[in-house]
Amino acid sequence: MATDITVNGRSYRWMDRPLVVVCVGGCQFEYIAAAIAAGAAPFLGRLLAGAGTCFIADGVMPSLTHPNNLSIVTGVPPSVHGICGNYCFDDDPKQLRVGTILAAFSQAGARVAVITARDKLRKLVGHQMSGVCFSTERAHQATLAGNGIENLLGHVGMPVPPVHSAQLSEFSLVAAVKLMERERPDLMYLCTTDDVQHEAAPGTPAANDFYAMLDRQLARLDALGVTIVLTADHGMSAKHDADGEPNVIYLQDALDAWIGKDKARVILPFTDPDVVNHGALGSFALVYLPEADIPGAARHLRTLAGIESVLPRAEAAAHFELPADRIGDLVVVAQLDTVIGGSREHHDLSALDVPLRSHGGTSEQKVPLLINRRLRRKSEVRHWRNFDAFDLGLNL
Fold it and tell me: Quick check: is 294 in a domain?
């Protein structure tokens, strides 16, 4: 059996006890702190009080689900793994330019398990790995041949929950506990959805209820003697005015008015087919300008209220660690309380039943990085990233 595994230029020690890395969708530190203060998360409270170790880390840009989950499981930024948006046609793993830590350990003989809440991540995160790999969204379809497990609903003792519910994440966490009790995999990766965070701010009853559930399941995993590393893909911010109306810059409309219709094309990496929580509105956009004045367009966009930064391709690739061949001529980032849309007519906000909360910008980059162990090297000065999760769990 191997003792060290090298993946994408980083070395990882073989685990001496099971490791579970948990990526909590949309979890900024304020959610955890508020739940602890409300008495809803005693296990996490003990970890922050000294039983564990907690850092504040930076996620990757854009602060979206797919780029960050893929960074966590590869240990490298999007400039290396190539995934810089939430949606590709069929979410084809061929878009992924490097292998994952999970695949490398499974190929070296480790028992590996992956549980994603949504199926759109499963094929990417579980690419080329062997072992258990399923999504809660399609748990009822899991087979031994296709997912490494069968009779999943019977094992977990829960029905498949509605897609947009806290119960979808709860099923994932309960399944992780049951799997650890029954099969004790060496390495597990678990990611939840950000549905609650899209609707509920830190400290609200719905948010505290979610973190109470998370706390209970993490305590159960801890009692099984596993190392737990918890991090997040991104935070979440209010993106609306005092009346609850979304603060939106419709970038395609603004460019059409300035340089003429169809002279520019705005791409929103946030976009995916499921827009119930966010209306495809996030704080990050790409602009393609095949025939226009790129420096002039950048200067113009910087004058729009709510814009934080506008960077040309090469500068954006270097600054945000993005693959230059997969981004636009300009990268546009909105301020904390603002989102970017394409054309107003292409965004259906009728499904938003609460004031808009979203992510994608630098404002949502800060996330927790927490381990249920006291580190001997706690005083180490380091710029922590969420994709240091496996390094933290295996090496430190």
Answer: yes
